[in-house]
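Archive maintenance. Older records in this collection stored only the sequence; we are now back-filling the structure field for every entry so that each record is complete. The fields below show one back-filled record exactly as it appears after the update. Entries are processed alphabetically, and Phage capsid protein is next in the queue.

ARCHIVE ENTRY
Title: Phage capsid protein
Organism field: Muricoccus vinaceus
Length field: 277
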Amino acid sequence: MSATIDQAFVKQFQAEVHEAFQRQGSKLRPTVRSKTGVQGASTVFPRVGKGVAAAKSRNGVVPVMNLDYSAVECFLQDYYAGEWVDKLDDIKTNVDERAIVANAGAYALGRKTDELIISALDTGMQEAVGTASGLADTDGLTKAKVLMAFEMLGAADVPDDGNRYAVVGWKQWSQLLQIPEFANSQFIGEGDLPWKGMQAKRWLGALWMPHSGLTKSGNLRFCYFYHRTAIGHAVAQDVVTDVTWHGDRAAHFVNNMMSQGAVLIDNAGVVRMRAAE
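Back-filled structure field:
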């Protein structure tokens, strides 16, 4: 790099991208089982089956649970989001140009992280669907579908420990707001109303949130009710920014990059709610 390049620009840009990613990046990463500092092209998430307790006779041998151990492999991929920043543009616009490019890179990486997690959710096989009223593919996201998914998680002994999450499309979020049990403070309490602050709230022991990137197949939007431990997210390299000067272009090239992956760990912990849209 040329000695005439302002190192303050480079350091400040890197800090701004990192800050923007933390503020505007992935919405779903905090809702899944995340592992950082991975070495290599893949990592393994262990999965432990259910244990069974049993009685023992006096002075007898303590029975063992014979837990079923297995592992799920998660492959990581490298992703990049680059952009040019012209030197004269930077002089003219100062912070604005830097902030715009930094935010764009952070948004792009955040969307990619959520895309990986959503792809992992899409591999789940359990679905809250039926022929009864409110459960058909011609229906939107109804209370019947939500309660069926809730029952399925409970029947599978998925822990109701505050680590359940539900992610829905914006159309489905509007449909939920028409359900009194979801939106009315008389049912759920003033502190959990969805229109306070960011659009997320607790209902049925889970944190619900809207998301614009959920898969849409035909006229069906795939929404999910899941437990944090059911999806694994691995990071070999968190968001890092490299800024280099190119004299032939009289511009900085800003390269944002990361190495991540996501995988379904436990099918029983994810229920898909198909909603007509």
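Update note: The two ends are 52 Å apart (CA to CA). Residues 95-122 form the longest helix (28 residues).
Entry marked complete.
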